[in-house]
Structure formats: C-alpha cells, structure tokens
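@channel sequence for tomorrow's demo:
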Amino acid sequence: MNNRPNLWAFGAFIAGLLVPVLSCAALMIAAGFALGQMGSGVSGLPSSGVTVGAGPGVALISVEGTITSGSATPFTTGVAASDDILDEIKKAKDDREAKAILLKVNSPGGGAVASDEIYHALKGAGKPIVVVMGDLAASGGYYISMAGDWIIANPNTLTGSIGVISAFPNAQRMLDKVGVEIVTIKSGPAKDTGSPFREMTDAEQARWQSLIDEVYSGFVQVVVDGRHMTEGDVRKLADGSVYTGKQALELGLVDALGYEEDAIAKAAELGGITGKPRIIKYHRQPTLFDVLNSAASSRSLLPTPKEVSDWLGWPTISFVYR
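structure tokens (generated this afternoon):
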C-alpha cells in the first residue's frame, strides 16, 4: 500500500499550521524589537522623556516632515502628525519643570488645518517659545513658527513660502482617449467641483480661488501678528517665495541666525533658567497593538484612504512648499 499521498496530506496539514504561527512569531519579534528601540531612547521615543543637564527644563518639541492630521504609527516616516505634536505641547504646558519650549522645525508644511491647530496650541501653551529652523521651515512650517517669541534660522535654512495651494489633477482627456466615460449623479452642480473626471468651470475656479484667498488672508494675519509687520509689508513677501535664513533675517522674517545651542541658551534665558537647562522630550510609548496594527497595515498591498485621496486630488487646502 502506498502511503505517499497520506504523507503529503500530513505535510500540508503541518505546513498549514506552521506558516501562520511562524508569521505571527516573526511579527511579534519585529514588534518587540520596535518597542525596545522606541523605549530605549535610541530612536528618541521614550515615554517619560530624555533629560540632559540639571535644573529646570526646556521642553523640546520637534516638527519633522510633512504636517498631517491624525497620529503617526511606529513605522511612519517623513510625517509630522498633528495629534502627536498636540499631545507633546499639552505635556509641556502642564509640566511645571518645563520653563520654556524649544520648537525644532524641519518641515515643508502640509495641511492648513493641522498647521493651524499646532500654531494655536503653541500660542496657548503659556510659556516662552524659541523656534530653531532646520533645512526647511516653509509654508506650514513657517506658519507654526509664528507662535515663537524668538526665531533662529541657520544661514542656509529655506523658509518663507507664505501662501496657500490646492491642486486638482484632470484626467478627462486621458479617459476620453481610452474610451472611458464617468457618469456622475449629484444633488447640485457644484457637488463634484474638483473632480479629476471633468474640467472645472470658470465659476468653480473663481469660487475655489475665493476660498484660497480667504485662507491666505488668515496666513498673512498670522505673520503680521507674529512678526509685528504691516499687512502690506507681509503681502509683498507672501507670494510663495522661499528665502535663505540670511535673507529672512534681512527681511524681518526671523530674529537671528544661529544653531541649536543658541536656541537652547535663548530658551533658558526667556524661561529664567540659570545654568545648563535640562532638555525634556515627551512622546507617547506605543503599545504592542499599535506596533502590530502598524506592521500589518504597512505590508498591505491596498492603498489607504488618504493615499487614494491624494492620488485622486480630492479638494484640500494646504500650506506646503512645492
């Protein structure tokens, strides 16, 4: 009697059990490694903060990457998630040992709403804020910098880009060439304004321009308040242009040129700290569920809703340097 078919069936059964078990084990190991890295201070994500020096502290809050709404995952890169930053600002506000805030900005900007939320949270922190700019502090990155009492840029920083942008891709001609027709059923003529499947009408473009102009006026006012400049002077500079740190100083868009150590010293001064200040970082310690969920989603072949939105160009208003 030939037992080979039974052996193959048994082997397939064992493999069917082992594959998901080994996959889960590998995921658990990766999650444990990620949690270990995040909790060790190597990645700068401890739950209670990293401190250097002695005495009263300066809270260090970093805005690194494109400013977006929501929270980042342990595997997210290149994004400054507003919910995470707002949480850090609240912790700094409530921390009696934090006498000042050092805001490190290295960002091209991003969402108008997310940028505005961060700006208002910083304004409400009730503590001196010193901003130190990195490679790029443009558009929304400059917007949030306006909450600072003192702004320091590197001579080679690119900053400014004061303005508002929306982009709407139009795929109608491409669809016509391949013979695809999109049928849209809508409740009103403006319901699909900005759709990638048809041209915008002149009236729709004018309407959307009025929205951009309104948000732009708000951006200008934030700069007027933050830099104590006249609206006319700000508007002369607010055509979307970027400036080097040196140019920004000459134009009155920043207060000084310098480096992080200069910003720390200024924050200590404004916070009334004598001697070397303690540097405090606040970050939420991710749970195992966060890591597993992030790992699973990062391996998905399907696009996220945000990615689909970005690809289709659904209407958004951004403070971003492009």
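heads up for whoever presents: Confidence is low (pLDDT under 50) at residues 35-50.
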